[in-house]
Amino acid sequence: MSYVDTWRAVAAATGATDRPAAEDGVRLAYRRAGLAEPERIIWAGSPLAGAQAARSLTDAGRSVRDDVRTYPWAEERRRVHDALGPAGWAEHWSVTGARLWDTTRALAERIRTGVVEALAEKPSETAGIRTVLLDAVLGQHDAAWLAAFDGRSERLEGLAEVARHAGWWWPYERAVVICERPVALHRDEAGRLDRGDGPALAYPDGFALYAWRGMPVPAAFLSELPELTPERIRAEANAELRRVMLEYYGYDRYLSESDAQPVHRDETGILWRIALVGDEDVVMVEVVNSTPEPDGSHRTYWLRVPPSARTAKEGVAWTFGLEAEAYEPTSQT
Predict the structure, then answer these.
(1) Which of 315, 298, 197 is closest to 251 using CA atoms?
(2) Burial of 68 (0-12, 13-18, 19+ CB in 10 A)
(3) Of 2 and 126, which is predicted with more confidence?
(4) Residues 66, 74: Cα–Cα separation, whole Å
(5) What are phi and psi of 41, to 5 degrees?
(6) What is the mean pLDDT of residues 13-18?
(7) What is the distance in angstroms between the CA of the first residue and the CA of the last residue of the chain?
């Protein structure tokens, strides 16, 4: 559906925020909730700055997040559910919000975690910061459930308008804190934060998250990747970071440059193994494609297999979801 694609684009939008349009959306959301419009709208450069601003407010009154977001959403969901019936609602959700849910919620939680890590100077402060974050309306990152009500609800028009033009926002009785959208967003094919040469998510005020295929990594770690050596990889004490290094460096390259020795050969290929301190062994099967390239050569492939593999055939069979005894290829490809 085109509007699902539209909301997918909203969730991933970067660049300049349309402040007047977002502020109009805020005021409309308040009116739709039966509230007086806020007296002040305070802009922040990121969810981190937004949370800091929200924590510092002393005269803004109570949070009205439930009034402008939670209650209208619940009532509209009930209305549409009753109109469509349980099966109809499930089908409607599956072709709208469900298509965006996993990636948007995962991104929102990653942002929350990043804000907590940046603001909590000691563990005892974590709960208080998370409480402030729970007062936020997620703006563009509420795209999943807004997609399910696109064109179906006047009550949610204000929330949708803010989401189209801005990031997270904190609604209080007399004031609103609202964030700019990110200036950069990099994800892999699975929708996970992913970038090897800079921040995967960056905001205009400098708040940024670094990740490799969804795994959070320190900023300085990425700058080290182009200069990796097998010795540096083996010296890394953090097993998760070592796996990132191996993925970046290439398992086949690591094996070839680490003086690895084959542990088994058979008709399917060659099994290689390297033990890593504090982590599982790196085990690969080297196989040769039986179909020749245009120049007559045969291409070599490396397959990473479980550490439990003891023979090349067992490893190759695993890649097909088979036991070694059941794997009897007519030709190796």
Answers:
(1) 315
(2) buried
(3) 126
(4) 10
(5) -125, 120
(6) 94
(7) 39
